[in-house]
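Minutes, project check-in
Item: structure for the 231-residue chain
Input as provided by the requester:
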Amino acid sequence: MMTEALATGLQELGLDLEAPVQQQLCRFAQAVLDQNQVMNLTAITDPDQVARLHLVDSLTVLKTMDLAGKRVIDVGCGAGFPGVPLKIACPRMELTLLDSLGKRVKWLQSILPQLGVEARCVAARAEEAVSTCRESYDIATSRAVARLNILLELTAPFVKVGGYVLAMKGTAAREELAEAKNAVSRLGLQVEKIQEFPMGDTSHGVIVLKKVKPTPPQYPRRYAKIKQSPL
């Protein structure tokens, strides 16, 4: 059962969440699975795996940083991971969910109020959306969107100096970080740590980068250019 898998995963992570919070997390995950029958939201459909690889994985962010009172943007949120589980577990954060696919955002706009989750949902490409909210967030987080050297150019411009980019990565976290050395310095970032968490027979990591100076105004470039010649 999803509830049991979630409880076990939280225990392994060392996170103590009250029963109503765990129930709300499972309601959201079930809503994702229900909607997945008519819209492509996740390739993971086993409830136990959804609990571990979506819910618990999203919540690893809480082990890296206190989000209470912070303004957070989830860039390329997809079905709402990690942003929605983080908001459920830490309601005192202010959440913006950003995704380029309008129908996903529309679904999030309709389902979240039913679950009692407050979030601003924006349908736009990251490199375009940033023009109205540049360097205005405390934290930008992202999961499974692109390789790190591409991802940082899409996320860093949203974050104010003194804020953080939290990049969620799989087993290649350290390899991607080495590859993104140039992007880190060019975008005004500094690596603080990589925190790794066991996930079954593999491990997932959160790369924590601090914004130490403003991102130069020429970034982000258009996505085609970012992809063609990553920093």
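Outcome recorded: The mean pLDDT is 94.
No further action items on this chain.
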